[in-house]
From TrEMBL, chain A:
Residue span, Manganese/iron superoxide dismutase C-terminal domain: 101-206
Signal peptide location: none
Swiss-Prot/TrEMBL catalytic activity: 2 superoxide + 2 H(+) = H2O2 + O2
Family (UniProt): Belongs to the iron/manganese superoxide dismutase family.
Metal-binding keyword on record: yes
Official protein name in the record: Superoxide dismutase
UniProt source species: Porphyra umbilicalis (Purple laver)
Cited function: Destroys radicals which are normally produced within the cells and which are toxic to biological systems.
All copies of domain Manganese/iron superoxide dismutase N-terminal, residue ranges: 3-91
A GO CC term attached to the entry: cytoplasm
Residue sites binding Mn(2+) per the record: H27, H84, D174, H178
Entry-linked SUPFAM superfamilies: Fe,Mn superoxide dismutase (SOD), C-terminal domain, Fe,Mn superoxide dismutase (SOD), N-terminal domain
UniProtKB/TrEMBL annotation, chain B:
Known catalytic reactions: 2 superoxide + 2 H(+) = H2O2 + O2
GO cellular component, one term: cytoplasm
InterPro entries: Mn/Fe_SOD, Mn/Fe_SOD_BS, Mn/Fe_SOD_C, Mn/Fe_SOD_N, Mn/Fe_SOD_N_sf, SOD_C_sf
Name listed for the protein in its UniProt record: Superoxide dismutase
Manganese/iron superoxide dismutase C-terminal domain segment(s): 92-194
GO molecular function, one term: metal ion binding
SUPFAM superfamilies found in the cross-reference section: Fe,Mn superoxide dismutase (SOD), C-terminal domain, Fe,Mn superoxide dismutase (SOD), N-terminal domain
Functional summary from the UniProt entry: Destroys radicals which are normally produced within the cells and which are toxic to biological systems.
Pfam families cross-referenced by the UniProt entry: Sod_Fe_C, Sod_Fe_N
UniProt: Mn(2+) binding residues: H4, H73, D161, H165
E.C. designation(s): 1.15.1.1
């Protein structure tokens, strides 16, 4: 079993001017691709057989129970592959995306955070204050509640037993420096603010609906 | 280099000053030595030993910004010089390196491997374990942690920043290339000076 790098759902320059095409290109063809290569190596190696047949999302939940010989490698590379595949799926080109939440998602955001604005403020803080490398998340917990969190390195909320606040992500933002350095350098808050212009709330709504009924976000993780 | 120094280093300095003021330590921590002592007590992410500051958020601010600004970036910038201007490691330093690793090349391999293998953000150090017979070691820390917070007496004498901001503009994802190139700008006399100081201070 081997994963393939999922194609980007849009052109490399689709997210301009918010995320530059060079970054999208290097991020996808180098960083993400390396995670795919590395997780495949682990799966093909000793003890990798225990993950055979599992979906990429299911693998995240298994990380905590893996043998020490492969646990860190799967956490880092398997996490990296899931996170980046998910990341591409929540963004889209201006004009083709739903720029604000509606329906169930909108009401839940409002009842949990007060308003979309308040939710974004909290999310931005989580993203800006994640020290070092990591991700910020909007997720649904086991009680069906929305919550915001951040994780270090390539951890994600699906990694029960590893993260402080487990849940099913419905939206995520990469705050590793490679995600924004070429255009924003150290100005991470500016990157975060711009990134909202690329978020497709229709996708987030679908993720939310799936999460509420115990499902997982639907995005492409093709096998080689 | 410009971004690293004028933006990142400057930002850490500002945040550190604010954190020290908030902790009521602005008048107390006024020298590098005092800062190192504070950092040794503040502990690494795993938490160790006593801490002079009760508030965990303030402790984190000091660990991250205090470590980030003075010990780490100061050491990093001071560890380097224009390519071609540093002599090779002296006899004293070479012997110490040989003692710890067997040879300079073995030390360099170990250091480079640690640098390329470090996941996420962090630092790689060549250090003197003054609590372990002054043995030379290669060690790593995550984020802006300092090596002597996790293990007392490990004094860094050479450091390499492997946060992506340290190399992304020129090398992008090619961290191994950055690490290889960096060896050409190491200032060996400076490394030796710090080695001698560490050994003498803890004699």
């Amino acid at each position: 079993m081997a994963f393939a790098l999922p194609p980007l759902p849009y052109a490399y320059d689709a997210l301009e001017p918010y995320i530059d095409s060079t970054t999208m290109n290097i991020h996808h063809t180098k960083h993400h691709n390396t995670y795919v290569t590395n997780v495949n190596n682990v799966l093909a190696g000793e003890n990798g057989g225990s993950l055979k047949g599992l979906s990429l999302s299911a693998i995240q939940k298994e990380v905590v129970s893996l043998p020490d010989s492969i646990k860190t490698a799967v956490r880092n590379s398997g996490g990296g592959h899931w996170n980046h595949s998910f990341f591409w799926s929540v963004m889209g080109k201006t004009g083709s995306i739903a720029e604000a939440p509606s329906g169930d998602l909108k009401s839940s955001i409002e009842s949990t955070f007060g308003s979309l604005d308040e939710m974004q403020k909290k999310f931005n803080t989580a993203a800006a204050t994640r020290f070092g490398s990591g991700w910020a998340w909007l997720s649904v917990n086991a009680d069906g509640q929305l919550f915001i969190s951040s994780t270090p390195n390539q951890d994600n909320p699906l990694m029960e037993g590893i993260v402080d606040q487990p849940g099913t992500p419905i939206l995520g933002l990469d705050v590793w420096e490679h995600a924004y350095y070429l255009k924003y350098q150290n100005r991470r808050p500016e990157y975060i603010a711009s990134w909202w212009k690329t978020v497709d709330f229709d996708v987030i709504a679908k993720n939310y609906t799936a999460a509420k009924s115990g499902g997982l976000p639907a995005f492409d993780t093709p096998l080689a | 280099m410009k971004l690293h120094h004028d933006k990142h280093f400057a930002a850490y300095t500002k945040k550190l000053n604010a954190a020290l003021a908030a902790a009521g330590l602005a008048d107390v921590v006024t020298t590098e030595g005092a800062l190192r002592k504070l950092l040794a007590n503040v502990g690494s992410a795993g938490g160790r030993g006593g801490s002079a500051i009760a508030d965990p958020a303030l402790r984190a601010a000091i660990r991250n910004n205090g470590g980030g600004v003075h010990v780490n970036h100061q050491l990093f910038f001071r560890s380097m010089t224009a390519p071609g201007t540093s002599p090779a490691p002296s006899v004293v330093l070479s012997e110490a390196i040989d003692g710890g690793f067997g040879s300079f090349d073995k030390m360099r391999s170990a250091f480079s491997a640690a640098a390329t293998g470090l996941f996420g953000s962090g630092w790689v150090w060549l250090a003197v374990d003054t609590a372990g017979g002054n043995r030379m070691v290669v060690t790593t820390t995550a984020n802006q942690d300092v090596p002597y917070a996790a293990k007392a007496g490990v004094v860094p004498i050479l450091g390499l920043d492997v946060w992506e901001h340290a190399y992304y503009v020129q090398y992008q994802n090619r961290r191994p290339e950055y690490v290889e190139a960096w060896w050409s700008v190491v200032d060996w006399p400076g490394v030796e000076k710090r080695y001698t100081e560490a050994v003498e201070e803890n004699a």
